[in-house]
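Sequence only, no structure available. Ideas?
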Amino acid sequence: MSTVSMGFPDGHLTEFEHAVKPLFISNSILALLFGILFYGLARFSSKTRSRVIFYFSFVLFVLLIIGLIVLYFYFSSNLNHGGGG
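Reply:
I predicted one. C-alpha cells follow.
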C-alpha cells in the first residue's frame, strides 16, 4: 500500500487511513534499517559473532512485523473505513 493512493479522490482520509499511515512509514523505515544491518553482517562480520547477531536481529524483526500486522488488523476491525451503506 502506498501513501500516495490513500484516501478518496477529493483527498478525504478516513480514520483507518489516518491510523495506518504511520504504521506504513514505520514499517518501511524498519525494513530499510534491518536490510542495511543484514547486509553489514553478511559483508563485514566474522562468522561466529555474526550468527548470534543475525539470529537475534531476525527474531526481533519478525516480532516487529507480527506486532505491525496485529495493529493493522486491530485498526481495520475497529476504525471507520469510509464504506457507505
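Residues 18 and 31 are 21 Å apart (CA to CA).
Hope that gets you unstuck.
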